[in-house]
Design brief:
Length: 282
C-alpha cells in the first residue's frame, strides 16, 4: 500500500535536488541534447544569418523592391518604426525585428516538450520511479522538480539563442540602419515576459500526459498532439505582440494566468502509485 504525503510547506532544497538530478542525466545524454543544440543553431543563427545577408547584399533592384513591398502587410505603427534609408536596409530591419520573433517561443517549447514528455513516465521505464515514490519528497515537490528540469533547458536555449541572434542582427543590419539597434523593447518583453509562461503552460499539459501514459514513446506522440495547438497559438500571439510593447505585455499577462491554472491542475497528476506503475488512470 503506497503512502500519501501529508500537507506541508514546499522544501525547495528537495525540488532543487530532483531538478539537478534530471539535468545531470540530460547533460550525460548527447544523443538527446545534440539534436536540440543543432535545432537551436539552425533557427537562431544559420537561418537568420543566411536570410539577412542575402537581403542586405541583394543587388537586383526589382527583387529588392518586391521584398520591400511586403512590408506593407505590417501594421502602420510597425511600419513607422522601421529604420533604414534603402529598401535593403528597411527590409532587413523588418525581418530582423518581426519575422523571427515567434522562433523565440517555438524553439524552447519544442525542447522543453521533448524533455517533459519523458520525465515522469521515464522514471517508471528506468525503474527509478520506486525510489522517487518512497523518497521524502512530496508529490508537489516531485512535480516542481520535474517542471524546473524541463523548463530550464528550453529557456536557457532562448537566452543563449537570443544573445547570438542579437550579435548577428546588429553585425549584418546595424551598419545599414545607423548602428546597433537590437534588442528592441518588444523583444525584451517577448523574451523576459511572454516566453516563460508559454513554456510553463505547455509543460503543465506535457507533464500531465507523462504521468498517465505507459511508455515514453506514447508520451512523445501524445504530447505532440496536445502541444501542437499551443505552438500554433503561441506563434500567432507572439507574431502580433512583436509589433508593440503593449500587446506583448497583455499576451504575457494572459499567458501567466493560464499557466498558473494549468500548473495548479497539473500538480495533481503526480501520484506515488503512478510512479510505481500500479495506477494508470484516475
Amino acid at each position: 500500500m503506497t503512502r500519501r504525503s501529508t500537507p506541508r510547506s514546499i522544501d525547495w532544497s528537495i525540488v532543487s535536488v530532483i531538478a539537478r538530478t534530471d539535468l545531470k542525466q540530460l547533460a550525460q545524454s548527447p544523443d538527446f541534447w545534440l539534436p536540440m543544440a543543432v535545432l537551436a543553431v539552425l533557427f537562431f543563427v544559420l537561418a537568420p544569418m543566411g536570410l539577412l545577408w542575402a537581403v542586405t547584399h541583394a543587388q537586383a533592384a526589382p527583387l529588392v523592391e518586391r521584398i520591400a513591398n511586403t512590408l506593407q502587410v505590417l501594421p502602420a505603427r510597425a511600419q513607422q518604426a522601421i529604420h533604414g534609408a534603402s529598401p535593403q536596409a528597411r527590409t532587413a530591419y523588418a525581418l530582423a525585428v518581426y519575422l523571427f520573433a515567434p522562433l523565440a517561443i517555438i524553439v524552447p517549447m519544442t525542447i522543453s516538450t521533448a524533455i517533459g514528455a519523458n520525465t515522469l513516465v521515464g522514471e517508471r521505464e528506468r525503474g527509478t520511479g520506486e525510489f522517487l515514490a518512497h523518497s521524502p519528497a512530496s508529490e508537489t515537490e516531485i512535480y516542481l522538480g520535474k517542471l524546473v528540469a524541463s523548463l530550464l533547458p528550453g529557456y536557457f536555449t532562448t537566452l543563449a539563442g537570443f544573445g547570438l541572434y542579437a550579435v548577428i542582427v546588429n553585425s549584418l543590419v546595424g551598419p545599414r540602419v545607423g548602428g546597433w539597434f537590437f534588442p528592441t523593447a518588444n523583444w525584451w518583453v517577448l523574451v523576459l515576459w511572454v516566453v516563460p509562461p508559454f513554456l510553463a503552460l505547455t509543460l503543465s499539459a506535457v507533464l500531465w500526459l507523462s504521468s498517465r501514459v505507459r511508455s515514453a514513446a506514447a508520451a512523445q506522440q501524445a504530447s505532440g498532439l496536445v502541444t501542437l495547438p499551443l505552438i500554433m497559438l503561441s506563434f500567432g500571439l507572439s507574431s502580433g505582440s512583436a509589433f508593440e510593447v503593449g500587446g506583448g505585455l497583455l499576451v504575457g499577462l494572459l499567458a501567466w494566468v493560464a499557466a498558473a491554472a494549468g500548473l495548479t491542475y497539473g500538480a495533481r497528476s503526480v501520484r506515488r502509485a503512478r510512479l510505481l506503475g500500479v495506477e494508470e488512470r484516475g
